[in-house]
Design a protein that fits this description.
Largest sheet: 4 strands, mixed
Strand content: 5-15%
Radius of gyration: 22 Å
Amino acid sequence: MNNNKIWLSSPHMGGNEKKYINEAFELNWIAPVGHNLNQFEKALEDYTQCGHALALNSGTAALHLSMILLGVQPGDYVICQSLTFCASANPVKYLGGIPVFVDSEKDTWNMCPEAMEKAIQACLDGSIADSFPSVKQLTKTFARKPKAIIPVHLYGMPAKMKEIKAIADKYGIPVLEDAAEAVGSELYGEKCGTFGEIGVFSFNGNKIITTSGGGAILSQNKAYIERAKFLATQAKENTPHYEHKEIGFNYRLSNVLAGIGRGQLEVLPERIQRRRKIHDFYLDALGGMEGITFLKEPYGYLSNRWLTCALVDREKTGGVGPQEIIQYLAADQIEARPLWKPMHLQESFEGAPFFGGDIAEQLFDQGLCLPSGSNMTDEDLERVVFRVKECLDVKLKKAV
């Protein structure tokens, strides 16, 4: 076997990206806005049927602006998924809000609707302050309705949006749908990112499609998009001179990078198909091994399988866990990673409210993200599987 580096999820160009970038150079549209940006946003709208799209320079920027649109202010509660990347919750802190973390459920590894409703009720009746002293330190009024609910489609697997939306509508709380990892994923035939009042995409370099760095806000509410666009361009008033009545941000995606996005979006169906085949390869090769299980796709769900993730049960593998496999793969220049560490266990969110059990913690303890890039060859996949099996065999022999 060769020793070429196998990355967890590296960028995979389709071919037309250079054409659109060259177009920007030929027209001298190197500045932030231009034809590529307009066309990329139009393509996002057409692909998702979201109504309106705004391309930004990161998914984090998209989340930050979305929370501003939903009125998050100091002391406000925001219901957040614990098992996710920190970008889903960090903007809550930017705005002085209080992230209220919710555990995962076993079917999709995403926000548990039952635990979410308990969190909402604790916010409404003020009992949240009885269990979490940090709340008393951050706000004087304990009983209030959360400003938003932020479910995440982890690793491309759709969350239980039907149940989440039903509860959110029951209490009149808007849903900010974090579809950063789920571009192209579907739930009952509809694209992820279109179920909430606002949806967010990420086009970071490791995502299923990329603009190098970038993100987007999606919404059927045109006013949201217009307001976000205003704030994302330094909140400049419509005057000949630079007039500012509000604080804005420099969050727009550049016209050059939008050219990459146009080319990437054209090959998204192919990228989804390849990543799903990679998942099936791993499932066929490793799914029958004692102690290794993969996340199943519930009926009506279609995951883009951005990353193929497995659970490794040490009790059934002779003490071999994700960390041992990750280290063993690294010795052969193969990148693998654990699942996200839950936010309620992070020092940066120490003392934050948390509702649920220990599902997220169990997933973090047992979770393994395998290399899943759509540009992986069959030889690459065979090499990964060979090393995983070899690791398990070596460790088991040592245990004996």
